[in-house]
Amino acid sequence: MEDKILQGKSIKWWKEQFPLMDNIISTKEVFWANPKAKKFLDAVKNISLNEEDVKDAEKRLERFAAYVSKVFPETRKTRGIIESPVVKIPAMQKKMEEMSGGKIQGQLIMKCDNDLAISGSIKARGGIYEVLKHAEDLAMRNNMLKESDDYSIIDSDKFREFFSRYSIAVASTGNLGLSIGIMSAKLGFRVYVHMSADARQWKKDLLRSKGVTVIEYKEDYSKAIVEARRQASLDPNMYFVDDENSTNLFLGYAVAAYRLRDQLKKIHITVDENHPLFVYLPCGVGGGPGGVAFGMKLVFRDNVHCFFAEPTHSPCMLLGLMTGLHDKICVQDFGIDGITEADGLAVGRASKFVGKTLEELISGCYTVEDEKLYMLLSALIDSENILLEPSALAGVSGPLQLFKDEAGKKYMEDNALKDKMKGSCHIAWATGGSMVPEEVMNSYYKTGKDILLNRKFSDN
Ligand SMILES: *Cc1c(COP(=O)(O)O)cnc(C)c1O
User: How many alpha carbons fall within 13 Å on the CB side of residue 142?
Assistant: First the structure.
């Protein structure tokens, strides 16, 4: 392995360049602070997307709200806007401190995207936004719709017949397929979801029950995305939702930040120079966490510190950012198997578009063991009665790792944050869970409880 050549250099050479590489390759938990991180105003100079783009996405979602609330009655209480609650989780914070023997300064809160309407995960942001944008583009191009219309007219046979002439393809580890599939099928599109081997059976069954064509692969996500892209390239009426490169997905996710600003105000959480905000985002290919982090930086600039969270067996974004090689490498190149219980994060190759965009804005990345995801899953149910899927727990362990790891401590020191941590706020982004069938959730819970009987959270 040491002699293997990667991008013209031996693995041994890569290890010498990056002190963390040894631990990453041996799938130990790591915390990495991004040495390329810059002040917001310097970093955004190199980014082509801006606040106007996010506002444009926000307005589009508002135009569609009348339609969404009509066809998805569960969104009526938010008037067709798909948004999740923010909750304080002090009992979980205490439990985490007990479990780990560590201390979390400041308060821990949770952004509950597990509760997002329609598809129960963060993908209900970007995924649904991209489908709506595509539908709007098609309808406008055919003079069926203008911005000033009441978009509830889209809930009609005329529109469904129109959209049925077009199709949509996407590759997914599960949740993106759910979002794209459910939304596209509702509009009337024909839709093809290419599922990687990691995708859970219940997600495939649910999609098929909605009339979605599910194509299954024995391989991982990289294979599914190649096949989905190929299928769409052969059919001019087929639209490919490109999880690796889509700015639409990214902007749909970014909208979350502006809404979150208002939610934080309502629960009296201040974010300013003396009250730093930390956000911990479970990361797969990068679009979801990247879009949210971009929005958060636009809103809170240097007062927000965003970290990506990945499984120890699938740290694609960490490797891409740290080496600067982005999508040129995958975790398997380094002998890491990419196999994880965190199905939503089981991605071996990160998005170059996201890596490049966030390169100077993201504070860092850390990795979490699968067993810890399960321990946190059970602990969160016991302490707060919040039910998440394993991937979503990756964000929860962030504050423990920030305060425990030497690199985390150094990050706080380097950014003159040490004295401000008492007034800080930590947001664990809970990225999915409410659609998990009860018996599957019960088995997750039991797995976590069993692990807790056999090892301490702090054991490595
Ligand atoms: C997809 C997903 C993520 C990460 O989003 P990416 O855009 O793939 O990085 C995190 N958590 C859950 C539950 C997901 O489904």
Answer: 13
Tell the residue number behind the tokens 């199709």, with chain if given: 167
What is the Å distance from ligand 1's center to 443 Cα?
Answer: 21
- Domains in the chain: ranges and CATH: 5-49+76-119+248-454 (3.40.50.1100), 121-246 (3.40.50.1100)
pLDDT of residue 459: 78
Q: Whose CA is nearest to atom 8 of ligand 1?
A: 284
Residues 24 and 221: their CA atoms lie apart, in Å, by 21
> pTM, whole model, 2 decimals?
0.97
Q: What is the pLDDT of residues 167-221, one digit of tens each?
A: 999 999 889 999 999 999 999 999 999 999 888 899 999 999 999 999 999 998 8
In the reported structure, the alpha carbon of residue 308 is separated from the centroid of ligand 1 by a whole-number distance in angstroms of 11
Gap from CA of 8 to ligand 1 centroid (Å): 32
Which residues contact ligand 1 via a Cβ below 6 A?
121-123, 175-176, 282-289, 344-345, 389, 391-392, 431-432
pLDDT digits (tens, 9 = 90+) for 331-355: 999 999 999 999 999 999 999 999 9
